[in-house]
Amino acid sequence: MQRRAFLHILSVAVAGAGMLCAQALAADAFPGKPVRILVGFSPGGSNDIVARLIAPKLAEGLGQQVMVENRPGAGGNIAVSALLSAPADGHTLLMCTTGTLSIQPHLVKSMPFDPEKDLVAVTQIIDAPYMLMVNARLPVSTVQELVAYARNRPGELNFASSGAGTGSHLAGEMLKSRTGIDIVHIAYKGTGQAMADVLEGAVSMIFDQPVSSMQYARAGKLRALAVAGPKRLAAFPEVPTVMEAGIAEFEPVTWSGICAARNTPPAAIERIQREIAKVLAMPGIARRLVQDGLEPVGSTPARFHDFLVANKRTWGKVIESTDLKPE
Question: Which residues form a coiled coil (predicted)?
Fold first, then answer.
């Protein structure tokens, strides 16, 4: 009996050592080919800009080419479908966003995927507050002036978003519900397309992340009225918050991160997270993100997962405060 027990313990130890060796080999083997980061929106938006900012340095860390592919449409769901159609080996990743994972589950009755079952959290890249931008020809300089102007012209002003059910859409709906103004939502397939029409004046305003819009404000083509977050941004201290304008509890802060498909090997996920965290800690990258009004994060998979659960609940409460209903 003692010999049999010893052999059992020995076999368990050998099996455990084998698993550890296999995991080590998997970590060493990944990546074995170029890595793709899928962005669910058209070029020129904040997610696209951030993905392309980190891709070259991530490629150096991984020792493989890192390509950014835009798969715009359906509020990011087309990119999710492309991710889930690819092998779950870590070589195809998703630039996951607030709209796709935290907002749409509350607004779409029949989601084409289950965020909690089909995706795996890898790391949060940034926190990204929105700024309320208006076309420079619109005769308003503050949020209070915008609200008064819109009240005198019900249904005449419109606001752009990077897609129905995205954070920029919800921020506009929050402004409507909190102030009682009547402005019309126009959805695009990404920030780049939306911004083009705001710049031309075909659309009056947009809630956008500074990284993709402040260049136009500095050039005098847009006017930054307020930060839709809990505090002013260090990069733009002169721009007040929406709450400073008297609109209480207006904090639709968004985020971007990296997700992988279910069943992606843990060793690959850990390697990707580790390399992205290194990139975000590089002084040049961190400085660029902060200058663009973004906050680098680089969280662990476990911490990002917990954040996603809480953030989905937060946005559910935001949606309850608007007139939006699931469709």
Answer: none
Structure-token pair, residue 195: 């911004």
Q: Give domain status of residue 18, yes or no.
A: no
Out of 245, 271, 295, pick the residue that ends a domain.
245
Q: Is residue 250 part of a domain?
A: no
For 179-208, give one letter per residue: b (16+ CB within 10 A) or e: bebebebbbbbbbbbbbebbbeeebbbbbb
CATH number at residue 219: 3.40.190.10
Domain containing residue 153 = 130-245
Q: Is the distance from CB of 206 to CB of 133 less than 8 angstroms?
A: yes
Query: What is the pTM assigned to this prediction?
Result: 0.81
pLDDT band at 20 (very low <50, low <70, confident <90, very high): very low
pLDDT in tens, 46-56: 899 999 999 99
pLDDT score of 321 more than 90: no
Check: CB of residue 131 under 8 Å from CB of residue 160: no
325 lies in some domain: no
Nearest to 211 by CA among 291, 298, 99: 291
Give backbone dihedrals phi and psi of 202, rounded to 5 degrees, phi first.
Answer: -70, -25
Confidence of residue 4 (pLDDT cuts 50, 70, 90): low
